[in-house]
Design brief:
Elements (H helix, E strand, L loop, with lengths): L10 E4 L8 E4 L5 E2 L4 E10 L2 E7 L8 E2 L2 E3 L6 H13 L4 E11 L4 E9 L11 E7 L12 H16 L5 E4 L9
Parallel strand pairs: 4-9, 8-11
Antiparallel strand pairs: 1-2, 2-3, 4-5, 4-7, 5-6, 5-10, 8-9
The structure holds zinc ion.
């Protein structure tokens, strides 16, 4: 950030009085511009035992499979966000059940939250951000072509809990991925 969104003057990156972390502070009007983690919300939607996945039409991870998920919007609940993202990315109307997997990813300042959901009718289609949408049996899930580690975790937790016959809440932290040699 270079300029204040309140008055247009330049900002400094410094620790405001009484604070403990550096912030973008306006040199003119004194406005403090906070930057906080973003919440990504998604859904594991099941229809007759199969799980709804989307193949990404956008970067990052274009062409890889993911659960419908995206950044939460202002003025909605997390359950609303899960349903909205599934409608946008998979053109599917789900019944949200409960949150079950939360993943903190501090190096990118994000928290990913996944809901369990039911897809009452097998009606879906690729939304703007998807190349393809499909229902997968457990044995057909494309584990080697998943877009995000939080998605892999959510799917692993979901399937393990389903096998165990009970769902619990899972909380994980992800550290930065080691750099792979090309
Ligand atoms: Zn200002």
């Amino acid at each position: 950030m270079n300029f204040c969104s309140a008055c247009g003057a330049t900002v400094s990156f410094r620790i405001p009085q009484g604070d403990s972390l550096p912030r973008h502070v306006c040199d003119t009007c004194g406005e403090i511009h906070y930057s906080n983690p973003k919440l990504v919300v998604g859904a594991v939607a099941e229809h007759e035992g199969k799980i709804l996945l989307c193949r990404r039409a956008i970067e990052p991870r274009l062409g890889l499979w993911t659960l419908p998920a995206g950044f939460m919007e202002n003025s909605e609940t997390t359950a609303d966000a899960a349903a909205r993202e599934t409608l946008e990315e998979a053109c599917a109307r789900i019944e949200v059940v409960d949150a079950f997997s939360m993943v903190s990813i501090p190096h990118i300042s994000q928290v990913h939250l996944f809901y369990r959901a039911r897809l009452p009718e097998p009606v879906f289609a690729p939304g703007e951000e998807s190349l393809d949408v499909a229902l997968f049996d457990e044995q057909d899930i494309p584990w080697d072509e998943l877009a995000f580690r939080s998605v892999r975790l959510a799917l692993e937790h979901y399937l393990a809990d389903r096998r165990a016959g009970r769902f619990i809440f899972h909380s994980d932290d992800l550290a930065m991925e080691p750099v792979k040699s090309m």
